[in-house]
C-alpha cells in the first residue's frame, strides 16, 4: 500500500470525539452525559465518511482497515488485561481482600502518610513491574477502599494511583516506553534513566508534598479484629509475581487463582458463586474492551487517511534550532500520544524523526530519549480515553474525565519537562551515542 498523503482531515475524528464529550459535558455540567463508547462510535461513523486524498478507499476497504487496527496485538492484549483486571477486582471484593488490606493500612500507617504512602508504594511497584496497566489493576482496588474509609473523593485517590503507575512506566528499566525511547535514539538504558531522574524525582517529591496537604475526612476507628491477614494474600501474591518478572497476564491470572482458593478454603465461595464472581467482574469491563477495539480501528483509519502524516510534517517544518528540535520532539510525541492513546506507539512513531532532529541540531540523544518518554507518559496519564485511565475509571465506577484533574504527577512531569527544554537543564558532559 502506498504511503498516505498528508491530510489534516484524517486527524479530525479524534477532535470530533473530544468535542462530543467536552461539548455535552459543558452543556449539562456532567461528564457522564456522553458515554465514552457512544462518543467513539459516533467519531468512527464520521471517520467512515472521510477518505485519503491520494487513494479512494471503498467502504469495504475502510472496514478492513478498521478491523485490522482493532485486531492489533496491542489492542487484543489490552482487552485481555481489562477482562482479567475486572475478574481480579470482583473476586477480591467478594472475599473481603480489599477491605482487609485497607483496614491493615489504616491500622499501621500514620494517617497523614496514607495518601503519600499510597503514591510511593505505587511508584515502587510500577518501577519494579515496568507496566502502568498492571500496577493500576493491582492497586486501584486498594485505593478505592482507602477513599471510602477516609471519606475522600474516589477520583482523587485513583488519580494518585495513576500518577504512581506512570512514574514506573516512565522510569523503569523494563518498561516498553523506556526500551522504545532508548532503542530509537541509540542510547543506553542507564543514560536515559540519569536524564529522566532529574525531572521525574522533583515531580514525585512535589506530588508527595501536595498529598500531605490533603485534608482527610471520615472517622477512622480500626481495631485488630477488623481485618484477616490471610485475606491480604492475593495482593501480596500479585505484587511478588510482578516483582519476579511475570507477564501482566500471568500476574493477574495468579492473583485471581489465589483469591479463588482463599475464598473456597475459607468457605466464602461455593464453586458456582466463585465462577459467578469472575463473570461479574469481566462484565464490568466489557465496555472497556469495546472501547479499546474502537480506538485501534479509529487510529488505523486516521493513519490510512494521512492524518498522522499531516501531524508529523506540520511539526517537522517548524524545527529551526536545537531548542526547537527538543520542543519539536516533545510536541510530536505528545500529539501522537493524544491521537493514538498509546505512549509506546507514539514513541516508536516519533523516534526516528526525533533522532533526525537530534543529529541535525546536535542535541544530546540522552535528552531526546528522556523527552520522548517523559512527554508520552505525561500525556498518557492524562488522556481520558487511554488504557490507563479507562481501566482505573472502570474499576472505580467513575468517568475517566473525572480522574484527569487529580493526576497531579503526570501534570508535573510535563511542566518540569517543559522547563528542562526551555533551560537546557540537565546538561551532560558527553553526547556520545553509545548502545
From TrEMBL:
Record keywords: Antiport, Cell membrane, Membrane, Transmembrane, Transmembrane helix, Transport
Coiled-coil stretches: none
Record flagged with keyword Transcription regulation: no
Span of domain Na+/H+ antiporter NhaC-like C-terminal: 9-214, 245-421
Location(s), subcellular: Cell membrane
Top-level lineage group: Bacteria
Membrane topology label: Multi-pass membrane protein
Pfam families for this protein: Na_H_antiporter
Record-annotated membrane-spanning stretches: 36-53, 74-93, 113-138, 197-220, 232-265, 289-312, 408-429
Similarity remark: Belongs to the NhaC Na(+)/H(+) (TC 2.A.35) antiporter family.
Protein name per its UniProtKB record: Na+/H+ antiporter NhaC family protein
Organism name: Paraglaciecola algarum
